[in-house]
Please model this.
Amino acid sequence: MRARYEAASMVPPAIDPLGRALGVVLGARVALFGCAALAVAFFLAPAGPGYALGQSARLALLAAGLVVLTSGFGAWAIRRRRRLVEIAMALLLLDQALWTVIVYLSGGVASGATSLYGVTCLTGGLLLGVSGASAAALAGGVFFSLMVLLLESGALVVPNDQVARLHPVAGEQVTYYFVVNVLVLVLVALLASYLAERLSRAGGALEAAEQRAAQAERLAAMGRLAAGLAHEIRNPLSSIAGAVQLLRVSEMGEDDRQLCDIVLREAGRLEDLVSDMVDLSRPRPPHFARTDVAQLLTDVVELAGRSGRAQADVAVQLFAPGEPVFVRADGAQLRQLVWNLVRNAVQASAAGSEVQVRLQLGARVVLSVEDQGAGIDKEAEGRLFDAFFTTRSHGTGVGLAVVKRIADEHGFSIAVESSKGQGATFRIDLGVRLTD
Model:
């Protein structure tokens, strides 16, 4: 057993997307730099007498060796998952410096290898987005400009094993090549930044689509389960509730009646759970019609005040105009949305507190449900409407998911305001008020 545990503990952790992309880049840079170094060593600066390598070949192979060494370090960092962003940025800057060496060895300012600066810009965009592409372009421009200045000043001379006339170091020709290469580098950087931004958006959309597909698969599985269990659960629950209600009206002590009330309350909670699961897993398209939301709220608040904890220790108060307020909605689904919000607020409230339901009229009709509970953590707000996510030990995380589904299908927007220990307020924008 201990041997198996030790073996399992030695398994490296999963590599994140940046690590995988960086691993591909490390292999590609070794191959690309290797080809460039060999081209310089054996085509532009062939070996001299006795196959002795000239200055150009030695510098090119030294640059290739440095690439191999840094790629090995990068591979180690990927395996250990150590500071991958910083390492990726450092490799981009180093590559632009090493491309400058290749450019210097293959013709200087007139070298066709200047296009390789753009390869690093594209790589930076793929790895780190706009910041990577911009940093690579800036580094390439700085190193290329520095090489040109050194050649013009005479501080850097043409390699002694190459033909000097193939390396322009002064005059209008240098200016022409310099301006063209810098402009091309800027254009490549802009293109790389644009592509990086599009890829980032596409990646985010793909991730969201994958999450929706996974959620749809979970809901489909839950739908099959709910369909099979709903009938089997509801029939026994109805029988239990009916029998307990008959017992409650019979002659029994106060303690026995309280026990019956507990059984009825829990049976009602199970019935609500089954209804939520069925509603979430098998939604039906809304049938829009003129719906009096003011009367609907009155009915729901009255019903909430007669059931569960609202009947015992949590007050539910309604603040709404004393006139009909019509909106375009599916009446049954809007009733379910309000019921779930009120029930969630009651469950989150402490004994003796109050839940306030408000209907505000203005340019748009806004429904708000406010509780005085413990509030919602900032970390939980992003997942508040996810199916099966709950912050309560006895919650199921289904009711608010039903609220979100109904709101989305109606085109309603939801806003949540909460702070720790100060309760929570759910606001639903129901759209414009319908006139006669």
